[in-house]
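The records we work with from here on pair a chain with its fold. These numbers are not coordinates but entries in a learned vocabulary of local backbone shapes. To see the layout at work, look at the sequence and tokens printed below:
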Amino acid sequence: MKAEGFLSALSQRDARYHLHGFTNAVKNHDEGGKVMTRAEGIYVFDEHGEKHIEALSGLWSVAVGFNEPRLIDAAMRQMSVLPFYHSFVQRSHQPLIDLAAKLVEMAPVPMSKVFFTNSGSEANDTAIKLVWYRANALGQPQKKKIITRNRAYHGVTIGSGSLTGMPHVHGGFDLPLAGFLHLTAPHFYREGRAGEPEEQFSTRLAAELDALIVREGPDSIGAFFAEPLMGAGGVVMPPAGYWEKIQAVLARYDILLVADEVICGFGRTGKMFGSQYFNIRPDMMVLSKQLSSSYLPISALVINDRVYGPVAEESSRRGTFGHGLTAGGHPVAAAVALENIAIIEERGLVERARVLGERMHSRLSALLEQPVVGEVRGVGLIAAIELVADKSSKAPLDAPGKLGQMAAEALAKRNVITRNIGDAIALCPPLIITEVELDDLLGRVEDAIDEVSRQIYAA
């Protein structure tokens, strides 16, 4: 490894003491990374004063921008009154009561209760435990297996990491655990067969789900977990007819549906929840990220009576519901979340995501004229640009991910922070982005893709 003297002072300290998530530790030690020092709106500034467009909203999460004074004030007000309290043993506090009521009221389908956690991973872990706890309560101790999709992202804890369908989340960690089953990713561009219509692809995926349930035994399957659209797996839009067909299979075998709204929730798709956009009727909804614009860690699991009733009765038989987190539903985080939701509603940011999303997708679709662009996909203010070396075969360049890395580097040169997911470039700007800022971002994206095309096809 290189000497630390090659790095800036801040990067040197960071590399010396900090093990980063989703990072090559040796590469970070050798090269360091960007250290951010302040932010304004959709922009973040690094230690050298360079101004960058945060085109992924941090981690798909900063809906109202990076320096919203109302969220700062909400945190300070709550901190001065009740800086911490918990919700164990029949205790509670006003921000938590108000936030739970607000989330039940906002839910796109009838819901009953909210359980608060600190991250999407913890909320999904809680959902897994509720599936198991409920099965025991109903005298169905075998009904514990859970089905998800390849390329799905549901978190990285032992339970939620088992839900996630990504090899790099499993590798080295002995995941997934037994009882977690993964099926074909619902990505028509990559998984559809030659000559297969999109609706037929959905029918095939529903039949695959049905066959797995029959093979494993319907009485052994507790739940199906899914994102309305897959976010970190590449911004994968469900194919035509997909959700209608999948829900019909689940209803046939009395299997719970858990909608992971961690990325889709609070306006990202141009509807308040992805479940509304895709007409999904979940039994549980997992919320985080844009719930507080990630100003403070908070997440929530919203459940219906079908889940709550047996769980409540079992807790009475046992004397307690033996699950909870010290900071789950923290009063300061809850107060910030309430203010964040108020801003989203008052400023019409959901409708803004729909309108500006149409503008973004219309302009991105023109990139399909580039020889290196195979697909443009997404809805609202979330999108992905799939890069290929050959459009007819959809083949990568040399190795999967190389084109995506080239595009990410071309964007970084233009001070755009985003992420390549394999050979797809993801875009997920804050909901507060203006038309002028969006056009500026898209201009930089167009220039970067053009540079990659010229590099590949100049000869």
